[in-house]
Amino acid sequence: MTPYPEEPWHLAGQMYLSLWLVPSRELPPVADGTRPVAIAGRGVVGAAWVVYENDSVLHYNELLRAVLVRDGHRPRVCITDIWVDSAASMAGGRELWGIPKEMADFDIDRTAGVRAGAVTRKDALATAAFEPGRRIPGRWPLTYRVAQTLDGGLKTSSVRSRSTVRTAKARWTAHESGPLRGLGRRPPLLSLALNDFTIRFGDTARAPSPPSAPPAPEACTWNEPTGGG
To answer: What DSSP string runs through 91-117?
Structure first.
């Protein structure tokens, strides 16, 4: 088994994110027990390129697609497709949180804007070009929970992040024979560059409860004998 860090993972780096409204019939399957959030018959889909660097517990590249879902009435994010170039990240994502990570090769060029591509041994996955725009002042916090299927049940995990945010223009292409073929059919509704982010992914394991102390023995009472006459 490939070793990986225990949760939570503390990660940092750069993210290049696009959002779409996609007809419900084109949505990928989501975690058992959840349903896509529907807006006029469309679901919210995000796809992102991520570079984990700086103080990250692991350094690697990532391409993911996710769907906004609900668990009962609670909003969640379900990662439906994801590729990384780290065996430790793949093993940890699958075993800790039920995130279906696969391996891929990446080419990410950040010298002038951002140009990214990813391929597996079987598929050319996607390419994208991002042109970062205006910076939105401040560092923006975001807290949510990821919902995945793990060991036949629903597993939710917390995500807390903070980043600098820039607007962006993005152009995506996805090969029609590949698993992300829907991404290239329409331009993104919104694209952002989340720079110098920090993320805390996962929940702190609860310490086992201390064993109960044995009951104290009952006190013995000595009654003085009464004299008879």
So the answer is: HHHHHHH---EEE-EEEEE-SSSEEEE
Which residues are within 8 A (CB) of 124 and not within 5 positions of it... i.e. 6 or more apart?
A: 117, 175, 178
- pLDDT band of residue 54 (cuts 50, 70, 90) is very high
Integer CA distances (angstroms), 33 to 42, 73, 157, in order: 19, 12, 15
Cα–Cα dist 86/105, whole Å: 10
**Are the C-beta atoms of 202 and 8 separated by less than 8 Å?**
yes
Model pTM above 0.85: yes
Domain boundaries defined on the chain: 9-201
Angle at 55 between CA 163 and CA 58, to 5 degrees: 105
- DSSP 3-state of 86: coil
Q: Which CATH superfamily is domain 9-201 in?
A: Acetoacetate decarboxylase-like (2.40.400.10)
Amino acid present at 200? R
Q: Sign of torsion, CA 132 192 142 79?
A: negative
DSSP state of 25: G
Under DSSP, the state recorded for 191 is E
Report helix, strand or coil for 88.
Answer: helix
pLDDT in the model for residue 69: 98
User: pLDDT, tens digit, for every residue of 172-199?
Assistant: 999 888 899 888 889 999 999 999 999 9
CB neighbours (10 Å) of residue 43?
Answer: 22
Q: What gap in Å lies between CA 216 and CA 128, rounded to an integer? A: 69
